[in-house]
Design goal:
Blueprint lengths: L36 E6 L4 E6 L6 E3 L1 H20 L11 E9 L5 E4 L1 H4 L4 E6 L4 E10 L4 E6 L8 E2 L10 E6 L11 E9 L9 E5 L10 E3 L5 E8 L2 H8 L6 E6 H10 L5 E2 L8 H8 L3 E7 L1
Length: about 300
């Protein structure tokens, strides 16, 4: 089983992808790989790819619609590059991007230590737009956690589950800024499931999730089906290194910091957070809409 494989941790994640926009109305496709090649639209990432109709997990669009989607994405990229407001740090450049999330009403956020490590300046950009400076209040380098104070009140705050690690097979999701080959300006959701721990992890400190974790997801919350935080994304398995070391092909496996570690870190720094029992299970779209207000893009400036 994959959860028993030796552990090789990839380089930490720091960069992030473009946001979703509504797709043109089209046929929803499911299947087993059969059928003609179609233009398959992934609304969560606003990308169009050529796939067999049975393999398309999004919606099939016409060639004209595909060109419209590509043009819209290109226009947004140009806006990101040339029409954004002046940088928060005029004498510095944005050198890294990660994810953070608000835990207090007065604008304190959690993220990974490696996201803000050695940064001359830190920025906090809301999912709804608007960017402010942030100040690093506390870090735990060994556990890869950092607490940031943003110069803004939080639009919303995350709610935590207790310290228990998700059971194997439990559905989870993370919301953040994964890199899809272009500058990430809005968050997206990545669905997955918990895989448990391996021999490299002490009990209740870190665990694996089966999900398409990418650079830029670092520091984002792992959410259960009711939207409670059950961990923080830290890294992903390096597929190439793992294969060279073990001969096993391991893909789409991320590493999360367990809630026990996260809550201990917050308690140490006298940060009270919302906790509670699980609520009604939500769809992926509902989880995304619920989480967006407390998600932020964290930038590193040097």
């Amino acid at each position: 089983m994959m959860s028993r494989l030796p552990f090789v941790l990839a380089a930490f994640l720091t960069l992030g992808a473009l946001p979703p926009r509504p797709a043109a109305a089209a046929e929803t496709v499911t299947g087993n790989g059969a059928g003609p090649v179609v233009n398959c639209y992934d609304a969560s990432r606003e990308t169009v790819s050529h796939e067999l109709s049975g393999d398309c997990k999004g919606v099939v669009v016409t060639p004209e619609q595909a060109e419209e989607i590509k043009a819209r994405r290109s226009q947004r990229t140009r806006a990101v590059l040339y029409e954004r407001p002046p940088p928060l740090y005029a004498d510095r450049k944005l050198t890294g991007i990660g994810t953070g999330f608000f835990v207090t009403d007065d604008g304190k956020l959690l993220t990974n230590h490696h996201v803000v490590e050695a940064c001359a300046g830190v920025s906090v950009e809301l999912a709804a737009g608007g960017s402010v400076r942030g100040k690093v209040l506390a870090v735990d380098e060994g556990r890869d956690l950092a607490l940031i104070q943003g110069e803004i009140a939080a639009p919303a705050t995350a709610r935590f589950a207790n310290a228990a690690t998700p059971v194997v097979g439990q559905p989870v999701a993370t919301v953040g800024y994964p890199n899809q080959g272009m500058a990430p300006v809005r968050p997206s959701i990545t669905d997955g499931d918990a895989m448990g721990t391996s021999g490299a992890f002490a009990a209740n400190t870190q665990y694996m999730i089966n999900a398409d974790i990418r650079r830029g997801n670092s520091g984002g919350p792992v959410l259960d089906q009711s939207g409670r935080v059950v961990g923080i994304i830290r890294a992903k398995f390096d597929t190439v290194k793992m294969y060279k070391k073990t001969g096993h092909l391991v893909d789409n496996v991320g590493v999360a910091i367990a809630n026990q570690v996260v809550l201990d870190f917050l308690q140490l720094h006298h940060i009270g957070v919302q906790t509670g029992p699980a609520g009604t299970p939500l769809s992926s779209a509902q989880l995304f809409e619920m989480a967006k207000p407390f998600i932020a893009r964290v930038g590193c400036w040097n």
